[in-house]
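In response to the reviewer comment on reproducibility (Comment 2.3), we provide here a single inverse folding case reported in full, input and output, so that an independent group could reproduce the run without further information from us. The structure tokens appear first.
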């Protein structure tokens, strides 16, 4: 196992300044500190939203108390493409409310419907609970596409970090169950490898260090270990990547997930999947969300939104 590397000197200077103002505390994550960290994250949720987008929470009856939030620009009419999104948080933190601002921007800009799922968190709900929540929400979305004004042919999935890991597992699950088509997958620094055997997985990422990652995976996998961990839980373990939808992957070059994400993009390409990969120099985990005003974060948003716009065209 490689020793943890201090990557501080390699960080983008703008990101260093922006992170200095934040006190994340993910390096202290444990069962004891988890409630406090969850409370701290609630305080970071957006307070002011535009009045240009409607937001309606819907129950998913087959998996109570699961809910999904449907976002739609008030100015739009007719059937629209849809982005089904899973929030980040290391599988143990976060809420779909954290994506309200994302869809405040995307719904008018991309002329789409946004749906964010409030999946259950580990350790209270270990695998396969959160993934089955995501699958049930996607199935509900397909069944209600007509009443929601959604073009069922253009529903893609996506997420950030742990949410991107769930989106990756969801795409694999949807392919193999062959019930629900997925038009594309947008994966923002996905958390997909529980083994932590790559070089980058041992770097001292200032946002999500190795010990936090280990905690998140242990909470999610519970008693599952070694070869018993299925690819739907940790997509880096998947051996068959054929017949997956067009894929976008982006990651910071200094992110602990960078090696696993770059490798996954390479294997998707080798499997014949249309794949676009972006690696951002000087960027750690979560750089676009935590340091949104930096030049590299703005560039990452433009790259993702350009790709999404192309996927959403009918």
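Designed residues, in position order:
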């Amino acid at each position: 196992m490689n020793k943890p590397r201090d990557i501080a000197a390699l960080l983008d200077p703008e990101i260093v300044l922006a992170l200095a103002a934040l006190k994340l505390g993910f390096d202290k994550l444990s069962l004891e500190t988890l409630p406090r960290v969850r409370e701290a994250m609630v305080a970071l949720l957006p307070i002011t939203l535009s009045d240009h987008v409607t937001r309606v929470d819907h129950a998913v009856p087959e998996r109570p108390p699961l809910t999904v939030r449907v976002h739609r620009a008030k100015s739009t009419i007719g059937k629209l493409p849809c982005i089904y999104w899973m929030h980040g948080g290391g599988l143990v933190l976060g809420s779909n409310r954290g994506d309200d601002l994302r869809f405040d921007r995307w719904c008018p800009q991309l002329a789409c419907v946004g749906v964010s799922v409030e999946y259950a968190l580990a350790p209270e709900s270990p695998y396969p609970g959160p993934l089955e929540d995501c699958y049930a929400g996607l199935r509900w979305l397909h069944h209600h596409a007509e009443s929601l004004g959604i073009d069922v042919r253009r529903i893609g999935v996506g997420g950030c970090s742990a949410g991107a890991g769930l989106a990756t597992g969801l795409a694999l699950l949807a392919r193999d169950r062959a019930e629900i088509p997925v038009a594309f997958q947008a994966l923002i620094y996905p958390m997909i490898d529980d083994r932590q055997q790559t070089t980058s997985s041992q770097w001292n990422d200032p946002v999500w260090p190795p010990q936090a990652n280990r905690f998140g995976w242990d909470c999610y996998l519970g008693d599952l270990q070694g070869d018993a961990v299925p690819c739907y839980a940790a997509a880096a373990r998947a051996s068959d990547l054929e017949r997956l939808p067009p894929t976008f992957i982006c990651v910071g070059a200094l992110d602990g997930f960078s090696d696993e994400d770059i490798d996954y993009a390479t294997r998707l390409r080798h499997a014949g999947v249309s794949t676009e990969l972006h690696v951002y120099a000087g960027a750690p985990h979560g750089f676009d969300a935590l340091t949104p005003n930096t030049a590299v974060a703005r560039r990452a948003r433009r790259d993702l939104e350009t790709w999404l716009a192309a996927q959403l065209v009918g």
